[in-house]
Write a structure and sequence with these properties.
single chain; 350 residues; alpha+beta; Beta-lactamase; 8-stranded antiparallel beta sheet; 32% helix
């Protein structure tokens, strides 16, 4: 399903099943798990704390969280731009898609436990030297939020983003496993070809937390990213910092918890992608926040669906399918598809 908000003119499309057991059709009113779009929420809170004088982007994380990380050179900016070098523990956790998921479906982790999983591996690069997407970075972001505000991530999201923007469909309910209200069930595709889909709707998402545990709707995500790019959530100075890009590949950049995708028609769009078991999300807006689109699929670990999500951006902002959307993807059993598209958390293969 997808929702386009073009300066107040809304277009919605939905196709497919929200619940296989009942056969109910999916609809844009359905709630869903947004996965790594959560990272943009965490980044906004931290940039607000910069505005409030409680945080400096170029200060060592260990200044605020003494002894947490193995290298004092890792700054807050490095964490928010995925340049810390911290190993992504989900690479190991979800090396096998369904068994990995079932092992953590109902588990509750502390932030420290997740960081400890990461630190079993050495840093992948000198801090600041290279971009390497890692959920660990935004677990650290959650720890910073809670240390500096002495309030939970949930409380900060609510008072700093959800309530000011009137996001009535958005919540962070970790470690509850249920999605309250009308929602689309999520269905995880196993690695084995032809295996039955796994209903992954109910889970703690504790393995992601401030990196991926928000629940929302297409309407609310359109509103969120439009407001962000229009400067309604941070100062102009911090919005500029958020858009200091490091190169991901030839068509993508990453700022501070924000993605830039350069489309085939020369337009750049801004937002984030997300994967959590059973759900894909693409949520992007124009530079001025005037045109926004959120596209959602209630499945994951499926390269064909993933490519369709990318084509939605091309259709919305360029009026045509992406010429590169049908390029060859890695063969089944090769590198995780989520790394290929760079939209972790989660693992997908083809």
């Amino acid at each position: 399903m997808a929702r386009i908000d073009d300066n107040g003119t809304v277009h919605e499309v939905a196709e497919g099943i929200a619940d296989k057991a009942t056969g109910r059709a999916i609809d844009n009113a359905d709630l869903f798990r947004v996965g790594s779009v959560t990272k943009s929420f965490s980044a906004v809170v931290l940039l607000q704390l910069v505005d409030e004088g409680l945080l400096s982007l170029d200060t060592s994380v260990n200044t605020y969280l003494p002894g947490l990380l193995p290298d004092n050179r890792i700054t807050v900016r490095h964490v928010l731009s995925h340049r810390s070098g911290l190993y992504d523990y989900t690479n190991t956790m979800f090396a096998s898609t369904v068994p990995g998921f079932e092992a953590v479906r109902n588990k509750v982790f502390s932030y420290q436990e997740l960081v400890d999983l990461s630190l079993k591996q050495p840093l992948g690069n000198t801090p600041g030297a290279a971009y390497s997407y890692s959920n660990t970075n935004f677990v650290v972001a959650g720890m910073l939020i809670e240390r500096l505000t002495e309030k939970s991530v949930q409380s900060n999201y609510r008072t700093r983003i959800i309530e000011p923007l009137g996001l009535t469909d958005t919540s962070y309910v970790h470690p509850s496993t249920a999605i309250s209200g009308r929602h689309a069930n999520g269905y995880l595709t196993p690695d084995a070809a032809g295996a039955a889909l796994v209903d992954s709707t109910e889970q703690t998402v504790s393995w992601a937390q401030s990196a991926g545990a928000v629940i929302s709707s297409t309407k609310d995500l359109d509103t969120f990213f439009s407001a962000l790019l229009r400067g309604k959530l941070t100062s102009a100075a911090q919005l500029t910092q958020m858009q200091q890009w490091v190169t991901v590949n030839s068509t993508q950049g990453y700022g501070l918890g924000l993605r830039r995708r350069d489309l085939s028609c020369g337009v750049s769009v801004y937002g984030h992608t997300g994967t959590v078991q059973g759900y894909y999300t693409y949520a992007f807006t124009s530079k001025d926040g005037g045109r926004s689109v959120t596209a959602v699929a209630n499945t994951s670990n499926n390269v064909n669906v993933l490519n369709t999500m990318a084509r939605t951006l091309e259709s919305t902002f360029c009026g045509k399918p992406a010429a590169t959307a049908t390029k060859a993807a890695p063969a089944r059993g090769s590198a995780p598809m989520e790394r290929y598209e760079d939209i972790a958390p989660g693992v997908a293969r083809d």
